[in-house]
Write a structure and sequence with these properties.
By secondary structure, this protein is of the alpha/beta class. The chain folds into four domains: 232 residues, 2-Layer Sandwich (Beta-Lactamase), CATH 3.30.450; 40 residues, no CATH class; 150 residues, 2-Layer Sandwich (Alpha-Beta Plaits); 252 residues, Alpha-Beta Barrel (TIM Barrel), CATH 3.20.20. Helices cover 54% and strands 22% of the residues. The chain has an eight-stranded mixed beta barrel, surrounded by four helices. The chain has a six-stranded mixed β-sheet with strand order 2-1-5-4-3-10, sandwiched between helices. A five-stranded antiparallel β-sheet has the order 7-6-11-9-8, with helices on both faces. The chain starts with a helix and ends with a helix. The relative contact order is 0.05. The N terminus is likely disordered. This is GGDEF domain-containing protein.
Length: 775
């Protein structure tokens, strides 16, 4: 009980906490992702501003340099020196003026943009080359500036014309894009700046940077990042701003820290985590208290179930005064306890007695037989068991209804009681319309005498109101100890004898070992027949048909044989009837149809004008999918339906005329030729026969073989042939055993004949050889 309690509490609290933690974890994940996404968006917008400010700083520096260049170009003394060609004065003015405005490079170019004088730091050769590259570009954009890479350092250049009053030369000035400009950006906007310079030879350098040592070293190793720089201590979002450059490539890299933006929100997340932990603890305590209140009354219900399992139905339950769902459950459970107690007595009564007839049931009868065969109360004595099954009882139920059938069973039970006089004997209802009688101390003659009296009592019809019912039954008898060694076997063999009596219509029949052997053999054959198709044990045979008046074409009837691996060739009469009873005949029909289609499609038979007849059973004809299955086989082998003749017996048609007619119409529309087999042995009317789309009548062999014995059969054959011809049908006679019968059929204008006189059923290869000999 305590284990159940702890388990339920743990599950209730655990499931609640699990759901709460899942929700909180999902919330944390969403909040964290949202903060990160918003921070990156904020940094991206800030980097847009940073990039604009950076370019504006470069433009301001260019304007300052351009103003200084304009002052120098407008200086009268400098222009006079230029006109007079005083190179020493020109060089001195360039150096002094450049130092005043902070320009590291000053130069004078003639009107053809050739360098006349240059003031530059050490490495003047590099500066001269850079001036020669930048000057033409600046001349075409007088108000612009240009950056050139000199010695791995970016320099910003401007150039203004010198007029007197026409252009007599150009003044060019340049200053390095230095660390001071990056520091200014850092102070103004708190953004890191790094200049990445790619020289003409492909080497990468970072001459200007506000980054700390570790991120700067990572940047120099990895080059320009794809969008962010992970330093191991935090993530920097980067924006690369390329500059218009000569002599290499320069990109200004603007970087902002994600952690700096996210830091204020981290404290909020920590506070939220503390609140969540406190909430989980409070939630767990509340759930524990609630679970305790729920499981306490459930313990009393658990104890009640254990009392009920022991059959104690007189102890009322607790907590019936509660007004909540637990109280409702307790009251419902208590009502169930009372109802179960009342039902148990009824169950004990019904366990051994049949409610309808008041007779002992199968279980009670078996216990009585067990007690009698075990010799309780004295020496072992003989006894007999009679099992009785009413004939046509299902028909009574179908026609007169189940209520009438119940009254009939009650009347039968009363008559059987009248036939048993000894108090130790017993009449029982085994189920349905089956009854059993136990005769203690009786032998086989006494059992047969009782069976005779029962049959005699059934000769008087049962009358209910205005309805009279004639009764009959099959009775099986088994005696102990002669027919069985134990009670269950005795009951089983009594039933075997009863079913045999019903099949043989013999009234009463005592058990015989041959009956049991036949049943076992039948079951074995049916089981093996299902495997015969899979193991290719079936064989196709063909029995030729002979055209009596020279009609074109060849005809044969398809038959099946079973080559059993142990029993040899099994006759069709030993497995076809049982296949029809179990419905397996449909698989046999499809197998025959498939084999015939394969034969007709084969090379050795394709040239023959052969038509093969295949028999359809009642189950085949009533199968709604028959036409579809046959069409699929024809399509698979590429064979025409006109190469087949489907033979149907009259009885198969009359079992369900409407469904049979519908299926025959579909088959006829597909192109199959249809034949009525065993004509004359059924009960079909000529009016109904005219409605069927048949092409052929096949006279039953009993009439054909009887033509030699008397004129009655010959008259039936003659009339059938004339009737068929009048209906536009062809006629086939089967069972032709002699040449005289064959000639008689030819005289009567019969169209085709088959029988042992013509040829026996042959395997496929033998049939083809027989046809070749006939040609």
């Amino acid at each position: 009980m305590a284990v159940l309690r702890r388990s339920l509490i743990v599950r209730l609290v655990g499931m609640s906490l699990l759901l709460l933690l899942v929700v909180q974890a999902a919330g944390f994940a969403v909040v964290r992702a949202t903060i990160d996404r918003n921070a990156r968006g904020q940094i991206a917008r800030a980097l847009d501003t940073d990039e604009n400010v950076w370019r504006r700083l470069l433009e301001q520096n260019a304007d300052r340099l351009r103003q200084g260049s304009a002052l120098l170009a407008a200086d009268y003394g400098f222009r006079s020196a230029v006109n007079s060609g005083d190179e020493e004065t020109i060089q001195s003015v360039l150096e002094n003026h450049g130092s005043r405005i902070g320009a590291e490079v000053t130069a004078l170019l003639d009107t053809q943009l050739r360098l006349r004088s240059l003031s530059a730091p050490a490495g003047a050769g590099d500066f001269q080359a850079a001036v020669q590259q930048v000057a033409p570009l600046l001349a075409s954009h007088a108000q612009g500036s240009r950056i050139a890479v000199i010695g791995g350092m970016p320099y910003q250049f401007v150039m203004v014309p010198m007029r007197a009053p026409v252009v007599i030369g150009w003044v060019l000035m340049g200053f390095p894009v230095s660390q001071s400009l990056a520091d200014e950006m850092r102070q103004l906007l708190s953004v890191h700046v790094a200049l990445l310079v790619t020289a003409a030879d492909g080497s990468l350098s970072v001459p200007v940077s506000t980054l700390p040592a570790e991120p700067l070293a990572l940047l120099r190793r990895s080059g320009i990042p794809s969008g962010e720089l992970d330093t191991g201590q935090g993530v920097l979002l980067a924006r690369a701003s390329p500059l218009d450059t000569v002599g290499g490539e320069v990109q200004a890299l603007l970087l902002r820290s994600v952690d700096e933006v996210v830091a204020p929100y981290r404290q909020l997340q920590v506070l939220l985590a503390f609140i969540t932990v406190a909430g989980v603890l409070l939630f767990a305590m509340g759930n524990g208290v609630m679970a305790q209140r729920v499981t306490t009354p459930l313990r009393s219900l658990l104890a009640a179930t254990r009392r009920l399992s022991r059959g104690e139905y007189d102890v009322p339950l607790e907590h019936l005064d509660r007004a909540d769902e637990i109280g409702n459950l307790a009251r419902s459970f208590d009502k169930m306890r009372v109802d179960i107690g009342a039902q148990q007595s009824e169950i004990r009564r019904l366990a051994y007695w049949d409610r309808l007839t008041g007779l002992p049931n199968r279980e009670r009868f078996r216990e009585a037989v067990l007690a009698a065969t075990s010799g309780h109360g004295g020496a072992v004595q003989t006894l007999a068991v009679l099992t009785l099954d009413l004939d046509r009882f299902k028909h009574v139920n179908d026609v007169l209804g189940y209520a009438f059938g119940d009254r009939l069973l009650q009347a039968v039970a009363a008559r059987l009681r009248e036939q048993v006089g000894a108090p130790q004997d017993m009449v029982a209802r085994m189920g349905g319309n089956e009854f059993a009688l136990l005769l203690q101390g009786a032998d086989a003659p006494a059992a047969h005498e009782l069976a005779r009296r029962i049959h005699q009592s059934f000769e008087e019809p049962l009358v209910f109101e205005d309805q009279s019912v004639d009764l009959s039954a099959g009775i099986g008898i088994a005696c102990w100890p002669g027919d069985a060694d134990d009670a269950d076997t005795l009951l089983s063999r009594s039933e075997i004898a009863m079913y045999a009596a019903k099949r043989q219509l013999s009234g009463a029949l005592r058990y015989d070992p041959a009956l049991d052997l036949a049943s076992a053999q039948t079951l074995s054959l049916l089981t093996e027949l299902r495997r015969a198709v899979e193991h290719n044990e079936l064989r196709l045979y063909l029995q030729p048909k002979l055209a009596l008046h020279g009609q074109p074409g060849l005809a044969a009837e398809a038959l099946v044989r079973w080559q059993h691996p142990q029993r040899g060739l099994v006759a069709p009469m030993h497995f076809i009837p049982f296949a029809e009873q179990t419905g397996f005949v449909r698989q046999l029909t499809l197998w025959i149809f498939e084999e015939v289609a394969r034969l007709l499609a084969a090379q050795e038979a394709r040239h023959l004008p052969l038509r093969v007849s295949v028999n359809l059973s009642t189950r085949d004809l009533l199968d709604p999918e028959l036409s579809t299955r046959l069409a699929a086989i024809l399509a698979r082998h590429g064979v025409q339906a006109s190469a087949f003749c489907l033979e149907i017996t009259e009885s198969a048609i009359m079992d369900d005329p409407q469904r049979a007619e519908a299926m025959l119409n579909r088959l006829s529309q597909q192109g199959f030729k249809l034949s009525i087999d065993d004509f004359g042995t059924g009960y079909s009317s000529l009016a109904y026969l005219r409605r069927l789309p048949v092409d052929e009548l096949k006279i039953d062999k009993s009439f054909v073989m009887g033509m030699q014995a008397g004129e009655d059969d010959a008259m039936i054959v003659r009339s059938t042939i004339e009737l068929a011809h009048n209906l536009g049908l062809t006629v086939v006679a089967e069972g032709v055993e002699t040449a005289a019968i064959l000639e008689r059929l030819r005289t009567l204008a019969c169209d085709e004949a088959q029988g042992y006189h013509i040829a026996r059923p042959l395997p496929v290869d033998d049939f083809l050889a027989w046809q070749a000999r006939q040609g």
